[in-house]
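re: ur question from earlier - yeah i can do the single chain one, its not a big deal. heres the input i used so u can compare w yours
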Amino acid sequence: MSLQMPDSWADFYKCEQQKPYFLELTQFVSSAYESKRCFPPMDQVFAAFDAVSPADIKVVILGQDPYHGLGQANGLCFSVQDGVRFPPSLVNIFKEIEQDIGEPIPIWGNLERWANQGVLLLNATLTVEEAKAGSHQKKGWEVFTDAVIQYVSDNCEGVVFLLWGNYAIQKGKKIDGIKHFVLTAGHPSPLSANRGYWFGNKHFSQANSLLEQLGKTAIVW
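and the output i got, formated as tokens:
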């Protein structure tokens, strides 16, 4: 697997590469991409890290799997390639932003614009086989992304973590709640949102308020 994280993440990446799980993970992913159609494209697997260095992280949003439809995933959680129809969870995210801070629903669902402002858009599992949700779970990615969360918690200051749904909330146990801010809500999927666990969480205005209290520039959501 020809994956390489950017230089700004080199200390973290070198450490993980030396661990036994990582060799097994890379062997699995290499084989999967060679034999089947997998997403995101290989050169976008680490897109979340390419977009923001540890020193520039203001907000972390944690997803679960990449989208598993053709042309959807671009390596950033909840984000889709330009021109792709919004998946239901992304629709609900944009609806909440509109209700919370009055930003109109955008034309494109590509969240690179968030990443470029310091939002780490991290999926717990970074790859997936086409049309098979969860197919690359329990292969080592969760260990890797747990280490990412731990690294950010240990090495950054005043990060706002947005954890949506029980899976993300459980994964957030490694976050130092004294150094950082943790906001939790239901998942933006229709199943959760329609039960009243998503809309009205106001995470986007709250995150910006916290950033401004820290003297940081708010995110243009």
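The longest strand covers residues 59-63. not sure if urs matches, ping me
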